[in-house]
Amino acid sequence: MRTVWIILFVVFAGYTALVYTQGESGTVEIADDRIRAGMHTWQEQNCTSCHQLYGLGGYMGPDLTNAHRTFGEHRMRTFIRYGTGRMPAHALSEAEIDGLIAFLAWVDRTGTSQVAPDNVHWTGTYIIEPTTP
Amino acid sequence: MTTATRWHIGFALLMLATALVVGSLAAFAFVFPDIGAHLSFRQLRPMHVSAALFWIITGATAGVFHFKRSEFAETHRSVLHATFLVLWTATILAVFGFYAVNEYGGREYWEFPPFLGIPLLLAWLMLMADYFRAWFKRATDPPLYVWMWSTGMLFFLITFLEQNLYLIPWFRDNYLREITVQWKSNGAMVGAWNQMIYGTALFLMVKLSGDAGVARGRKVFIFWFLGLSNLMLNWGHHIYNVPTAGWIRHVAYSISMAEWIFLTNIIRGFRAKMTEQRIHASVLTYRFLLASEFWIFLNLFLALLMSIPAINRYTHGTHITVAHAMGTTIGINTMILLASLGTILRVDELTGTGRTWITIGRRITTASLLVFWSALIAAGLLKGYRSVALGMTDFQAMMVPVYSVLNVFAFAGIGVLFGLGIVVWIFMRVALRSSPHR
What is the predicted ipTM? Predict the structure, then answer.
């Protein structure tokens, strides 16, 4: 009993180490200060309450993983500043808006939120090619 | 029941009541923009999520800490348990205070400023110290539920720490690593509290049936190890669409598919369950356990389908995920926790209309939850079809028919609020008027 538990725990610990060090598929992007500030604003404003990144988060507004390529910087800036539809206007400074857009542009470079039909393998799993920087 | 247990249960029930009220307000703010203009969804959502999460963790530990006293033959009052309760309660109240003034940490599930994690961690360490001090003095060869409680306590600590790793720049400076570690910890944390809750369900079944063999033997332990492997490795289904290394996806997919064995076992045990149901039909707390098994069946089937990436492609990021979350937290966790707390509060000894109202409350909850759950699935199917199959990119246009279905969800939520509200009200009254040593 105890032995099986310990074996499972060791497997878990080993797998955790592997996930931490080898889990990403090739893209290693180091965030700069502007992106870090944008990530901080994203969290501070609790954007995840209404929006998703990679389909994870709230359901009130659209998934923003690829918002940068879909809407472009100018439209994003307008949405954040004046609000739209169900989204309220956010009283953010220019620097905060710049950071937020830089953060979303950074997220956008890591991949696409929706998996293309070509990536679905016959076994039911996905085969997704590593994102190149 | 000690005074600490009484307050532990009282605070857990307060969190459930908060989750129900705020959740209903949030649902209406979500569906009806006119109402949403007056209620801040940005505040209501974290309040609802945190209250639900703290209801589950506080309720789970209330059961474990009461039942462990008889299991570990404890007679003394625990200062550590009481200190945990003070620190835990005060920090959670502070969490709601920060939400009220729009101060967030902005992480899914744990949306409060991260420094509040420090007193929560300290409180948890006290609880663990109290639990494992007794655990190490226990008789050898403990039953399965003791293993489950212990594993749940330990893994909650591990996943809680992991959840905060993003505070270290090395983790957050690579977005794919950040999102992977975040959902690894979130996924495994759900498994951790399930260990405590399912352990208590098993404990209750042993006491109800008088058969200690229910929690011993090779078969139950094999099933538990299978469940434990899922806790440790299947979290990857949350992030199938994230371009991580492929093996994370494949491991999660493979291990998730082992859950078909659980589903098959539930179906095979159906006849035995019918006999058991006839024997214990009059026991109120058993009816809550039985309700949880109905929801386990439905949600396990849904989870298995969602764990197949080809199907997940249509369900991910839709309200089907919410249906699964609500089905498991209300249908499974809350029902087991109410059975557990009801046993501690001895609600089966209630006389007068109390018993009748608990039964009415449970029935209203089950019926409303079925409508609520089905509406979310229908909304998710619509969203998945319109966004993935039709490729619609205009979010507002895509959501038009989805909002119509969500009206049903919002009104069914009132039924859940009303049904569970009745049960919480009666339980709370019993908890607060019980003499400490009843």
Answer: 0.91
